[in-house]
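User: Hey, quick favor. My workstation is busy. Could you predict this chain's structure for me?
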Amino acid sequence: MATLSPQSPNKYTYGFHVKEKYSFKSQKGLSQKIVKQISRHKKEQAWITQFRLKALKIFLQKPLPGWGSNLSKIDFDNIYYYIKPINSKAATWKDLPLEIKQTYDRIGIPEAEKKYLSGVSAQYESEIVYKSIIDSLKKRGVIFVDPQTAFQKYQEVFKPYFASVIPISDNKFSALNSAVFSGGSFIYIPKGVHVDMPLQAYFRINAKNMGQFERTLIIADEGSFVHYVEGCTAPIYSSDSLHSAVVEIIVKKNARVRYTTIQNWSKNVYNLVTKRALVEENGIMEWVDANLGSKLTMKYPSVYLVGKNAKGHILSLAFASNKQHLDAGAKVLHLAPNTSSTIISKSICKNGGRTSYRGLLQIEKGAVDSKSFVRCDALLMDEKSRSDTYPTINVKEQKTDIGHEAVVSKIGEEQMFYLQNRGLSQEDAQNLIVSGFIEPIVKELPMEYAVEMNRLIKLEMNGSVG
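Assistant: No problem, here it is.
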């Protein structure tokens, strides 16, 4: 997870980069030649190559989204779409090239793996460089590999679900990802298996003008449970990088999946992500989505409740500062009876930053006795900052229970007066109020992540990030 150095609080510590030393680096720009080159380096079957070429055609045909933030400044011809850092994944952490190992040592991944993770995946540029899972989970049939390995070793499980939740043509950036995807995770949890400690993936961009396009597929079979955590960082450059992931999740009957994101990209990264889960009967899907970094984020974790009594919960946090626009939110479709959902969105803006909540709640005909509650809270720290809310609620079934609340507020003078009169400094009082504001999100994180999140927010409040 991205952190900041206590010795140097005004510096985004993981904005560092190391000297480039790669196995292969494509030319800039996107073409059939580049797509075929990616597929050839991965030694893919012909059908995967054709899948990529079809996606490229769709990407080139689709226009940029006309809503949200301005994407016209993305220079798709000035991006490296594939960089292979090493020839093959390392069997142990010590086997990684020194410059890559030192990068992750500074981030703290080896220590995290030892302390509180069931498995860890590290992606550097376009490829997974290291992945491990504890032996006890392997023995119980849990699969935790990258997509390339899934194609080769687990195709009978992987292939039927690949691109089934998010088709190529879903949007321009899902098409882009489908054309050049590399890295990511494939997770399969067998029936009845509960993975009690989180699995974590960590994504690192090092090169200038890099595009990272990981693809993740999680299948939680009947009665199973898994918590997956991802973190992201990148160096600070004068030119922009692009991150465009696709995440597909299948929650089978009586299963539960929690997917936690701690996004702290540097402020020269466009973060454009498509995430969607299908939830079957009595299943539960939980998205916990925290966004602090990036130049622009457009991300709307989605839940499609396709089985009766299915549940979806989305907790979203965005913190935007100067020259940042975080356009985040959620999407829930109720497609079966007795389904329920909650969407809780919290956003904080300071120093001219902008946040937007963009959400869709849809209850289809026949989804009787469905229940949903949506709450959007925005906290503005100054007059220069801006927060927008774009909620859409579409109800096609009469027998439902829907609630929606939205509040935009500032830190009140009475709150500050009360706390300062009890001995708190102005800064500590302000931090305490903000900590209380984001508490519904932070309390859902594992303890180590909750402590780190509070620390990151405190540093943001002090104007120490960026």
